User: Which sequence fits this backbone?
């Protein structure tokens, strides 16, 4: 998969996150903002969605900050959102085991985001995403 496809997939993920949160807010009203932990989780997911949507297209923000970095910031925000919502549910189903699982999943997303921010995805994808692989080796 080349960089353009990754970029469009980031936009689809961001749009999906924004649609999910929008749907929840339409159905539940202000209930997700009833506890501080859920409010922070909603804000982090909306931030992740917005960063991914912005990263998907050429615009003034991507002219200043590379799209891979914006997408990496989105992955960090999404990774932080996972344990925040679970940790705020005292006495929830599963208790500490669910919190540990959410933290492990969130940590892996944060690691992907950090790799995308600092190394353009070199460690996760095997090469930097900013490199266009469609060109032949002798054209570089």
Assistant:
């Amino acid at each position: 998969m080349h960089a353009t496809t990754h970029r469009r997939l980031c936009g689809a993920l961001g749009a999906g996150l924004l649609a999910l949160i929008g749907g929840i807010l339409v159905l539940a009203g202000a209930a997700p903002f009833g506890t501080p932990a859920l409010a922070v989780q909603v804000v982090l997911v909306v931030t992740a969605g917005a960063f991914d949507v912005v990263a998907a297209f050429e615009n003034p923000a991507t002219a200043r900050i590379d799209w891979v970095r914006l997408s990496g910031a989105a992955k960090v925000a999404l990774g932080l959102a996972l344990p925040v919502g679970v940790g705020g549910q005292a006495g929830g189903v599963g208790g500490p085991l669910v919190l540990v699982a959410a933290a492990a999943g969130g940590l892996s997303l944060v690691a992907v985001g950090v790799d995308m921010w600092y190394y353009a995805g070199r460690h996760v994808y095997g090469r930097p995403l900013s490199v266009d692989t469609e060109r032949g080796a002798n054209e570089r």
Remarks:
- Confidence is low (pLDDT under 50) at residues 131-140.
- The helical segments are 3-28, 36-55, 60-64, 67-87, 96-119, 122-125.
- DSSP finds six helices and no strands in the chain.
